[in-house]
Write a structure and sequence with these properties.
Blueprint: H1 2-6, E1 33-41, H2 46-49, E2 54-59, H3 72-75, E3 81-83, H4 85-97, E4 103-106, H5 112-124, E5 131-135, H6 141-144, E6 153-156, H7 163-170, H8 175-189, E7 194-195, E8 201-210, H9 216-230, E9 235-239, H10 261-274, E10 279-281
Parallel strand pairs: 2-4, 4-5, 5-6, 6-8, 8-9, 9-10
Antiparallel strand pairs: 1-2, 1-3, 7-8
Helix pairs in contact: 4-5, 9-10
Binding site for [4Fe-4S] cluster: 62, 66, 69
Cofactor: [4Fe-4S] cluster
Pfam family, one: Radical_SAM
């Protein structure tokens, strides 16, 4: 594991920094697992949250740094507590005792080897509930291969098809190609969605797409790619909950508003026209709801 961190290339940024010596790359994270909250979360897709909630562990830091990030409090790496892989495994069991339907690993990309060690230990000790890998989609397929047999459900974003948008909003022009490669590997590992008798997802891939204001054209390209490439092997979660950051996005004024009802309806109509049937959609004033918990160290 030390070799992976001394010349860090865990994600497509391939920063090459020595995190063991305190050098910081794009994720702004050191060598230790850092997490900001572990709790039951009711705001995931219904087949993940269920009645009790998804046992969600929010990791600090992020390899993307999107200008509109709604979790900036932790994604910039400034909030969280350093924990061992052993402690993380204990947290999994504590969440299960609280009634979690699954363990939801949010933005674990930059801690992947250590996190997977905790997952493997939990499985060896018969945790007995699925593990969800919840990420922004900016992953390396060869790193994801390490997750085979350990991750039951993949929950990635597919944010953009346009390298220009990916560059502007996430400083990652290679995002589309990296995300496509990562998705292919995820679907290889979990090629079908399997639900239990109560409708909870046990295995499979759900791809999220957060519609951004003014970007209907690119959102349509995302849905077309997903449907044409993976068909009914995956579910697609089409999200309208985009909320502008409180301080606004100075360089991108188009992002300083919510998605309109008309924009979202056009995207859903397009999904229907493509023949997409395995999808989750959001209804009502979802952008007014609070999907963001307090990152207060609870459960860590």
């Amino acid at each position: 594991m030390d070799a992976l961190l001394s010349n860090c290339r865990l994600c497509p940024r391939e920063c090459g920094v020595n995190r063991l010596l305190g050098e910081l790359g794009a994720c702004r994270s050191g060598p230790e697992i850092t997490a900001a909250r572990a709790s039951l979360h009711l705001w995931e897709e219904p087949c993940l949250s269920g009645k009790n909630g998804s046992g969600t562990v929010f990791f600090s830091g992020c390899n993307l740094g999107c200008v509109y990030c709604q979790n900036a409090q932790i994604s910039r790496g400034n909030t969280g507590k350093k924990i061992s892989s052993g402690r993380l495994c204990e947290i999994f069991f504590e969440l299960k005792e609280q009634g979690a339907h699954n363990i939801n690993l949010v933005t674990a990309t930059h801690f992947l080897p250590a996190v997977l060690n905790a997952v493997e230990k939990a499985k060896q000790n018969h945790l007995g509930i699925p593990f969800v890998y919840n990420c922004g989609g900016f992953e390396k397929a060869d790193m994801l291969k390490r997750a085979e047999g350990l991750i039951d459900i993949f929950l990635p974003d597919l944010k953009y098809m346009s390298p220009q948008l990916a560059m502007a909003y996430s400083n990652a022009p290679n995002y589309p190609e990296a995300a496509k490669s990562a998705l292919t590997e995820m679907v290889r590992q979990q090629p079908e969605c399997v639900f239990d008798e109560t409708g909870m997802l046990k295995r499979g891939v759900i791809v999220r797409h957060l519609m951004l204001p003014g970007n209907l054209k690119d959102s349509k390209k995302v849905l077309r790619y997903l449907h044409q490439t993976f068909g009914d092997k995956i579910f697609i979660s089409i999200m309208s909950q985009y909320t502008p950051p409180a301080k606004g996005v100075n360089d991108f004024p188009e992002l300083n508003r919510k998605v309109t009802k008309t924009e979202y309806e056009k995207l859903i109509e397009y999904a229907i026209s493509l023949g997409i049937t395995q999808a989750f959609v959001q209804e009502g004033e979802t952008a007014d709801a609070s999907f963001i918990p307090d990152f207060d160290g609870r459960g860590i």
